[in-house]
């Protein structure tokens, strides 16, 4: 014990007095170097770091002021919006800056949801599969953001296809056909600093939005990755890693932007009046029904459904699962709050409140219902209930009232308990309840907009049609792709690998190599 | 020399250890085990389905003593581990052929 504390003290001292100062010193040296060089033979990454280092150094503001004689227009080669905000301060520029900042913060909050998914899935699966579950989550965030950069973002937001009345634009004006668009690399293609700045300023045009194009990309990229990770929980503990990796790439790179564009990209669902504020259908029902298709093809875990009835397979860490759900709740403030797409004080505030009310109502309903049904209060049902409420409010957080938000949450919490039991009764094995929370409650959240929305243009039938179309798309895409993968490379580990645990068999690693059997008092 | 193997309820471990210390025995080996006898398991519920847990956690205590101390050692263990409820456990006594202290190569009664 003494030796351990000694080692800890040593490593802490090394970090404090050697590594951190070295890191600080080297990064400031690097920043000075980058500001000094005019290296222009690279892509967008250098642009960002140059902009950062200019902003970070104290000389930045003085440079801009001294470079221009005019106060009206920003000189070429200068960040137009920063110039405007400083030289022409005013309500518009302040709102733009605030909105942009809020969106970036929201993107970071949505990123936290990946932390939530990782810990929740780890907690609800057995310790012998924990490394595998975490690995899948790490893979998904990496592949989600990268494929969104290479293909998804431009495929999901290809431009206008319909006019304001919902009629298709004529061929010369339409950027795409409203059903499917080609993706491409999202970044700027320019290679000299001047051209890059020009391109940047062009992207930051006022008519675009209350945030700039960089922010748009990163915010939406976080959503894409979230949709894919819903599947990883449902297929946990028996899926073959390589097959999952292939499937996840195809799902997030191609399927997600296609259905996302139908509404958010201005496609045919949008033209038809369908409304999905933050993605109950586009993200959650999409993920949930993709998960359902995969689970049907994959089969249940060994030993779950036996001749003598269902044998539950309890998760190995309730604390991790709980932390995961609370992190998801935290991230959802960004997920819904950021979907306002501006820092509109009233609207963002409204969305925060409806989100929280629905989450709490969902958790409360699940607690009551599961207690009544199973005669004991079940923690995992309460957790799933909170998530169900969150998924339920996601389609209409900005367009329903406080009371409606509570009702939506209560019903979602009620639905999710019965849905979980139902899927188990038909031998659909879902270790974390992803299909019920995201799939079923995603549909509920979307049609709830048709029932509770302030906006009379939101119709129940349109909502129902839209959510069923998106869910069916996700389901069929996944069914076909996953079945093909099953035929080509197999999607399941062998019985022995599953029994030993995926950590040892697929990764050759253990999540808890030091732990011994837990003792009880 | 005799070896005492005692299966006891986990929360009784500290009491048993103290009781053995009082009769002058300060060395033992302890393992976490699962088991059942007449004490039935209990039912748990997870996400809507009930299941019985048959095996209950216990502590297995092993101590090798000189024959002279055997009776007071067993009495100490039994006295400290008893609750009067089902599942208190059992004590087994086995013969030991030899005991050797690794550090000093002592054998027999000195090694225990």
Key features?
heterodimer; A: 521 residues; mainly alpha; Ammonium transporter fold; two-stranded antiparallel sheet; 19 helices; 2 strands; B: 112 residues; alpha+beta; Alpha-Beta Plaits; four-stranded antiparallel β-sheet; 2 helices; elongated
Which fold does the CATH topology of chain A refer to?
Answer: Ammonium transporter fold
The number of E-state strands of chain A comes to 2
> Which sheet architecture does the biggest sheet of chain A show?
2 strands, antiparallel
CATH architecture of chain B: 2-Layer Sandwich
According to DSSP, the number of beta strands of chain B is 6
Secondary structure category of chain B: alpha+beta
Q: For the CA atoms, what is the radius of gyration of chain A?
A: 25 Å
Cross-sheet strand order for the largest sheet of chain B:
2-5-1-6
Biggest sheet overview of chain B: 4 strands, antiparallel
Query: What is the CATH class designation of chain B?
Result: Alpha Beta
The CATH superfamily name of chain A is: Ammonium transporter AmtB like domains
Low-confidence segments of chain A, given as residue ranges, are: 30-71
The CATH class of chain A, by name, is: Mainly Alpha
Low-pLDDT segments, ≥5 res of chain B: none
Global structural class of chain A? mainly alpha
Strand order of the largest sheet of chain A: 1-2
- Helix amount of chain A, in percent? 55-70%
């Amino acid at each position: 014990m003494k030796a351990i504390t000694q080692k800890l003290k040593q490593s802490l001292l090394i970090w404090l007095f050697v590594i951190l100062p070295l890191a600080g010193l080297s990064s400031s040296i690097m920043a000075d170097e980058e500001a000094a060089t005019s290296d222009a033979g690279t892509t967008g990454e250098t642009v960002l770091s140059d902009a950062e280092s200019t902003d970070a150094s104290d000389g930045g503001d003085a440079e801009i002021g001294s470079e221009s004689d005019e106060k009206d227009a920003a000189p070429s080669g200068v960040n137009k919006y920063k110039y405007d905000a400083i030289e022409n301060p005013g309500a518009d520029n302040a709102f733009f800056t605030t909105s942009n900042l809020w969106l970036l913060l929201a993107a970071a909050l949505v990123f936290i949801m990946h932390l939530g998914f990782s810990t929740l899935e780890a907690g609800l699966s057995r310790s012998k599969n924990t490394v595998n579950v975490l690995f899948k989550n790490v893979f998904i965030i990496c592949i989600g953001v990268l494929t969104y950069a290479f293909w998804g973002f431009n495929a999901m937001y290809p431009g206008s296809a319909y006019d304001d009345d919902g009629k298709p634009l004529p061929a010369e004006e339409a950027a795409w056909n409203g059903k499917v668009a080609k993706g491409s690399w999202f970044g700027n293609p320019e290679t000299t600093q001047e051209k890059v700045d020009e391109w940047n300023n062009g992207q930051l045009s006022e008519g675009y939005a209350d945030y700039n194009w960089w922010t748009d990309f990163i915010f939406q990229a976080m959503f894409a990755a979230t949709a894919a990770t819903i599947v990883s929980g449902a297929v946990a503990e028996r899926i073959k890693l390589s097959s999952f990796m292939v499937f996840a790439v195809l799902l997030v790179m191609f399927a997600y932007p296609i259905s996302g564009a139908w509404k958010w990209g201005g496609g045919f669902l949008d033209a038809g009046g369908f409304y999905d504020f933050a993605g109950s259908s586009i993200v959650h029902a999409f993920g949930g029904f993709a998960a359902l298709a995969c689970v049907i093809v994959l089969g249940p875990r060994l030993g779950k459904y036996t001749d003598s009835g269902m044998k539950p397979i309890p998760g190995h860490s309730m604390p991790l699962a709980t932390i995961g759900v609370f992190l998801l709740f935290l991230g959802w403030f960004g997920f819904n709050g950021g979907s306002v797409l501006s820092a509109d004080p009233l609207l963002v505030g409204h969305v925060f409140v409806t989100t929280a009310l629905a989450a709490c109502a969902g958790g409360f309903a699940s607690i009551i219902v599961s207690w009544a049904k199973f005669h004991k209060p079940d923690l995992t049902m309460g957790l799933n209930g909170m998530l169900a409420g969150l998924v339920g409010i996601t389609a209409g957080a900005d367009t329903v009232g406080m009371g409606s938000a509570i009702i939506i949450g209560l019903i979602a919490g009620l639905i999710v308990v019965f849905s979980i039991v139902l899927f188990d009764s038909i031998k659909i094995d879902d270790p974390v309840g992803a299909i019920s929370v995201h799939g079923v409650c995603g549909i509920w959240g979307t049609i709830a907009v048709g029932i509770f929305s302030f906006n009379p243009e939101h119709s129940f039938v349109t909502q129902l049609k839209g959510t069923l179309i998106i869910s069916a798309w996700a389901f069929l895409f996944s069914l076909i792709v996953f079945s093909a993968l099953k035929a080509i490379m197999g999607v399941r580990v062998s019985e022995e690998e599953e029994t030993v645990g995926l950590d040892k068999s697929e990764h050759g690693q253990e999540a808890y190599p030091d732990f011994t059997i837990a003792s009880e008092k | 020399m005799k070896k005492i193997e005692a299966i006891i309820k986990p929360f009784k471990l500290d009491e048993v250890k103290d009781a053995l210390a009082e009769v002058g025995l300060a060395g033992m080996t302890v393992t976490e085990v699962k088991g059942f006898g007449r004490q039935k398991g209990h039912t748990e519920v997870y996400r809507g389905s009930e299941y019985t847990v048959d095996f209950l956690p216990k502590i297995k205590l092993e101590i090798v003593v000189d024959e002279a101390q055997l009776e007071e050692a067993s009495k100490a263990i039994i006295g400290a581990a008893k609750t009067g409820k089902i599942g208190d456990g059992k004590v087994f006594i086995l013969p030991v052929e030899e005991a050797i202290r690794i550090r000093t190569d002592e054998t027999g009664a000195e090694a225990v």
